[in-house]
């Protein structure tokens, strides 16, 4: 028996629910502090990327039809839910990114601030249609929400592509969104590495590609985006 045989795979989140897929390969998510494998990330490709983007595109008209105030209220509800599960999210961040417990808890607080000031940012947000957000593993929650909050508030829908090293926070966040009344397809989670990013860039319905992470990864993502005639935005 392999070490990973009893380790569960992290699901995608597409169209309002957990989405299991037969990926061609998986990435072992290790706790950097202990070296133990905690879960496995499916390394998705073009097919799964297209499914996620199509779900976001299908949800776009209904999500756009909400007022800014209604979308801001959903984000405020998400903030309240996240506050209630703050220790759980901090635990996931620490376990997958290797952050000290205090730093992980501080990241949750940063995420709460981003959500709670959403209404104040409504006047500067701009709609980009379906938006993909690629993140690294350094700040898997705050880095994602830094882009996702103004994007969702503006009326765009999102496909998040977290690092395969730290995939769980994005899925847990999507679950809280579903419980809080977000429209199915407004926020989706695609797992994978560079092939998943290729798939996102190739999807005709994708509007914008945003990035949160370190410079080395940004260069690789920008190269992929450039091959598809897309501009990467920080």
UniProtKB/TrEMBL annotation:
GO terms for biological process: gamma-aminobutyric acid catabolic process. Keywords: Oxidoreductase. Residues 27-230 form the Aldehyde dehydrogenase domain. It comes from the Bacteria. Its EC number is 1.2.1.79. One of its GO terms (molecular function) is succinate-semialdehyde dehydrogenase (NAD+) activity. PANTHER family: CYTOPLASMIC ALDEHYDE DEHYDROGENASE (EUROFUNG) (PTHR43353:SF6), SUCCINATE-SEMIALDEHYDE DEHYDROGENASE, MITOCHONDRIAL (PTHR43353). This is Succinate-semialdehyde dehydrogenase [NADP(+)] GabD. It comes from Candidatus Accumulibacter adjunctus.
């Amino acid at each position: 028996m392999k070490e990973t045989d009893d380790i569960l795979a992290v699901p995608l989140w597409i169209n309002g629910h957990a989405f299991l897929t037969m990926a061609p390969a998986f990435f072992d998510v290790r706790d950097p502090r202990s070296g133990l494998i905690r879960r496995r990330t499916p390394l998705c490709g073009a097919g799964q990327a297209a499914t996620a983007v199509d779900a976001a595109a299908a949800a776009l008209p209904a999500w756009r039809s909400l007022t800014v105030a209604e979308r801001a209220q959903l984000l405020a509800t998400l903030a309240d839910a996240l506050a209630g599960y703050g220790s759980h999210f901090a635990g996931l961040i620490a376990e997958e990114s290797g952050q000290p417990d205090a730093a992980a808890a501080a990241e949750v607080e940063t995420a709460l601030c981003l959500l709670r000031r959403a209404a104040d940012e409504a006047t500067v947000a701009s709609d980009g249609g379906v938006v993909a957000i690629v993140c690294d593993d350094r700040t898997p929650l705050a880095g994602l929400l830094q882009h996702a909050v103004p994007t969702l508030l503006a009326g765009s829908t999102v496909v998040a592509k977290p690092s395969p090293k730290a995939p769980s926070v994005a899925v847990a966040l999507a679950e809280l969104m579903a419980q809080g009344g977000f429209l199915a397809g407004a926020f989706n989670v695609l797992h994978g590495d560079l092939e998943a990013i290729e798939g996102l860039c190739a999807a005709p319905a994708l509007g914008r590609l945003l990035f949160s992470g370190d410079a080395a990864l940004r260069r690789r993502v920008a190269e992929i985006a450039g091959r598809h005639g897309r501009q990467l935005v920080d």
